Amino acid sequence: MQNTVLQSTEIVKHDGGKMSSSAYDTAWVARVTDQQGTSVFPECVQWILENQKQDGSWGSQILDYHDRILSTLSAIIALKELDGIRYKDHIQKGESYIWRNMRKMRKDNCVFVGGELLLPSLMEHAESIGLNLPYYVKVYERKCRAKLEKIDRSLWYSPLTSLSFSFEFLGDEVDVERLPYIRLPNGSVGNSPAATAFYLKHRKDEEAVQYLRRILCLRGDGSVMEAFPIEAFELGWVMYNLMLAGLYLEQYNEICTYLTKNLKPSGIGMSTGFPVPDLDDTAILLKALHRMQHCVDFSIIDEYDMGEYYATYTFEVGASVSTNIHMLDLVKSCPQFPRRNENIDKLIAFIKKEMHSPGYWADKWHISPYYTTSHGIMALSGLDSDLAGKAVSWILQSQNENGKWGRNGGTLEETALALQALMYYHRNVEPIDMEGISKAMKFLHVDVSSLTSLDLPDMWICKVLYTPTRIVQSSIASTQLLGGIENCG
Asked: Mean pLDDT lowest for which of 30-44, 105-119, 303-317?
């Protein structure tokens, strides 16, 4: 089972990690043109044309208005620039969708990466090229100003900040003379296909073109993913999920050695070549290193300490509950962690404050409360029985009648997350009535290696929604192991 999700380090290094298609990024890549105004990547144009939904939108299977509006806006801008007459019908359907749903974005509770910068920039450009849209609806205007005021202009062209991942927000205000400083050695801008495509619209660069061609070759269907490469993110999180199920493999040592060699003074990020570390990936890796008896330097997390909580990134707007849950899990797992009891108390206080009254947590990196709540239960078990128990009760009470958990009658990922926490709690804290668990387990009798985007709807949050394929597969495989399911792949 584990071999279906835990690929060798060399394989993951070669393919860079697996992620679902992004309409937002694919449309940006389609906008890269030659001197005649023809798309350099016609396969991206074709993918956009073939993937418009019946309601006129583009985006994830799961309805989230930020995801749909941003993806649709990106797509119709691309089609308008390339041939507004030829693609008139697609454009008008997209415009109509935005008119009907623009105001509904205010109902979304999630905060998307760079959203407060990207949407205003795209709307401004859409108006300049004559798209028919509700420009009077100012969804992110104040948030955009607040974000830009927080970040010094001298950092806008630096590859060393998380802002580089959303570099396309600069729009027509880009300073072309400063562009050479933003690109990374792998050919990308911020490991982002959209940011790289924006860069290519203003500067010729064969290495950037080859970066995009590599992703298109790996995807094979004319689409690109939202971030690439993501091998450090993928390897660390697959280990995390399999370790939760008590599965320890010799291959972990190979992974830990590889990632340790690329550990920066402030930790690690989505890939070993990405110069912007984050605490979430770093905490997951440090826990794995400790479990595999590697030497761990805990001082690398000091700069993320904000006093009452830990930040995920520098310049972060709003703390992440799941990052702090993963920090608690790390501190709990490491008896030698500096000021261990003090940090545990601080983290539990923050996590308790962030709990919603019914007994669940929501977060900025995943739209499902089962992600954060499941991980919260496992981190809190053995530390705060009341808080963990309240979250367990919420999960049990929120099970759908069909036995699954989650939206639209339940999803594989959300069901696996709920079961992962319940079985962990059952084994390590106190027994739980197994009737609901047994009812749900039958849905996880699947071959994880065969799961596709139809089985794994996008629920992870970045600029738009996405699925880190192998990580979600490993979550399901972990639950299968905890539940004793055999012959599932």
From this structure: 105-119
Phi/psi at 227 (5° precision) = -145, 145
Amino acid identity of residue 123, one-letter, is M
Instruction: Name the maximum alpha-carbon separation found in the chain.
Output: 68
Q: Which amino acid is at 187?
A: G
How far apart CA 311 and CA 321 sit, in angstroms, is 10
For residues 15-50, one letter each, b for 16 or more C-beta atoms within 10 angstroms of the residue's C-beta and e for the rest, the string is bbbbbbbbbbbbbbbbbbeeeeeebbbebbbebbee
- pTM for this structure? 0.93
Tell me the CATH number of domain 231-483, given options 3.30.470.20, 3.40.190.150, 1.50.10.20, 3.30.450.20.
1.50.10.20
Domain boundaries in the chain?
Answer: 21-219, 231-483
160 Cβ neighbours under 8 A, 6+ residues apart: 275, 276
| 8 Å CB contact between 77 and 129 | yes
> Which tokens in the block code for residue 41?
């990547």
- Among 134-143, 157-166, 272-281, the range scoring the smallest mean pLDDT is 134-143
Distance in angstroms (rounded) separating the CA atoms of residues 44 and 31: 9
SS (H, E, C) 259-290: HHHCCECCEECCCCCCCCCEHHHHHHHHHHHH
Q: Are the CB atoms for 327 and 351 separated by under 8 Å?
A: no
- As given in the structure block, the two tokens for residue 273 are 């070549």
Query: What Å distances lie between residue 97 and 71, 134, 263, 356, CA to CA?
Result: 11, 11, 45, 32
Task: List b or e across 387-420, with b for residues whose CB sees 16 or more CB atoms inside 10 angstroms.
Answer: bbbbbbebbbebbeeebbbbbeebbbbbbbbbbb
Asked if pLDDT for residue 228 goes beyond 50, the answer is yes
Yes or no: say if 29 and 193 are a contact pair by the CB < 8 Å rule.
Answer: yes
